[in-house]
Amino acid sequence: MEESERVREVIRKQVGDDWDDEVMSRARFKALSGQRSDWEPTYLFWRDLILSVARQLGLFIIKPSHLNNQWFNRGGLTPLSLDRVLFEMYNEGEIVLPSVDLVDPTAGRLSQVFTRLTNSMIRRSRTTTPQLLMSQDRLILTSLLKDKAVEVVKLLSECHWTSSCIVTMKRFQDICGGAYEASALLSYLSAQGKARYLSLSKGDFIEGVKVSLSASSVPSISSLDCDVLHLIWTTEKLQQQLNVIDQRCQTSRKSALACLNSGNKKVALRHVRQLKLANESRENCATLLNRVEEVLDVIASAESTKKVSEAIQIGAQAIKENKMSVEEVQHSLQEIEESIDTQKQIENALESTSLYTVDEDEEGIEEEFKKLELDIEVNSAGETEASKSAESLIDSLSNLKLVDDGLARTPAVQGTVETIRNNKTETPVLETA
Question: Cross-referenced InterPro entries, in alphabetical order (predicted)?
Fold first, then answer.
């Protein structure tokens, strides 16, 4: 569906038949004049319509010229109030100017702070007019920019299980919808402390973004981050090469088959040789890609191990400060494991009964349920006692107050408690949330 058709669809849904009503259209298409109480309903109408259309199109950046010439052009009649509407939206913070309100995300942190201060002074000193806004090439809708930033972080969270991630600039641009959109989003996320730009030069100039996927701010860029970016960039290049080789293999295979069908065995043999060389090249490329991905997996596992180690240290400190002996902890953990094991046995029994179909013998189904009830009665006493011990340990760990070098330790302890609740391992360990 073309953009103009989608815009008309949104207008029909939001405005209805009033859009074609001549009397209503004349009132809405007039310029805003008089006191605010006189034109505020018209302003709210156009503001909400602009936001609705942009949201439906998946845009947070709009072009003022499109509003008049494409979005709201009604048979050559265009709204005379759009410049004033954009001006009011700008004054209320619903629109920002990229050149004034956003900083270059590729600049250093100090440079970004200085630019924000400078732009803030420029914005206060100069008078922004409706005509100036209409002459801009692009305007950014603040609310939709924030929504898009949340969406981007959510998409990255679905592909990464760590608290932060690193992606190449190309990947970030693809997620954001383009280079200009990526720059605006990176500027916004950087201002919020949720993203950082990084780059390196190793033969090729490589750009990337480090994004926080948790509620905390994104950590500073380290040398390891640069190495990870280089590895990720390498995997993307290798994957691109594999795609090219696959296309080449497909072409050679089709050509060989066509030549064989036409009886030209000599040419078909040449295509088969090309196919063989392409397959060998693909194998080498795939092997290298697997090695690079293995290195990335090792790095991710090392990061996880580090967090587990920190959690174990926190747990040890908690036990020490709460004056609990190791024997008490081991005994409580054992009871928790027995409780979990009992619960799993019950769940397995329930799952086994759910596998019966309607066509099976009803007496057999009743017999299974009787056995299940008997198992529940036998295990209920031990389960209740283990649950009390588990809750006692959980409450004891949850009430601790720990501070270490500015790090919030209590949430980590709570995370270990949740892990103890939900996971059964052969050797109990404390894990981070």
Answer: Snf7_fam
Contact 145, 60 (CB under 8 A): yes
DSSP string, 277-327: HHHHHHHHHHHHHHHHHHHHHHHHHHHHHHHHHHHHHHHHHHHHHTT--HH
Nearest-5° Cα angle at 156, 149 to 420: 115
Distance CA(145)–CA(188), nearest Å, equals 8
Name which of 123, 108, 130 is nearest 43 in CA terms.
Answer: 130
**Quick check: helix, strand or coil at residue 360?**
coil
CB-based burial, 50-74: b 16+ in 10 Å, e otherwise: bbbbbeeeebbbbebebbbeebbee
Distant-in-sequence, close-in-space partners of 42: CB < 8 Å, separation ≥ 6 = 27, 28, 30, 32, 81
Contact 65, 83 (CB under 8 A): no
Cα Rg for the chain, rounded, in angstroms?
A: 32
Label the pairing between strands 204-212 and 61-62.
unpaired
Tokens of 128: 């922004």
Distances in Å between the alpha carbon of 260 and those of 246, 254, 256, 269?
21, 10, 6, 9
Is-contact 284 303, C-beta < 8 A?
Answer: no
**In the block, which residue shows the tokens 């196919």?**
275
Query: Tens digit of pLDDT per residue, the chain (433 long)?
Result: 577 788 888 888 888 777 777 788 788 888 888 888 889 999 999 999 999 999 988 999 999 888 887 888 877 778 888 889 999 999 888 998 887 777 777 766 655 555 555 555 555 545 667 888 888 889 999 999 999 999 999 999 988 877 889 999 999 999 999 999 999 999 999 988 899 999 988 778 999 999 998 888 888 888 888 888 998 999 999 899 999 999 988 988 888 888 888 888 888 888 888 888 888 888 988 888 888 888 888 877 776 666 655 555 655 565 566 555 556 556 655 665 666 666 666 556 555 544 444 444 444 444 544 444 455 454 554 445 544 544 554 454 445 444 444 333 334 334 443 443 444 444 343 333 3
Return the structure tokens found at 14. 């939001």
H, E, C per residue of 11-79? HHHHHHHHHHCHHHHHHHHCCCCCCHHHHHHHHHHHHHHHHHHHHHHCCCEECHHHHHHHHCCECCECC
Helix (H) or strand (E) holding 349: helix 326-353
Q: How far apart are CA 117 and CA 45, in angstroms?
A: 34
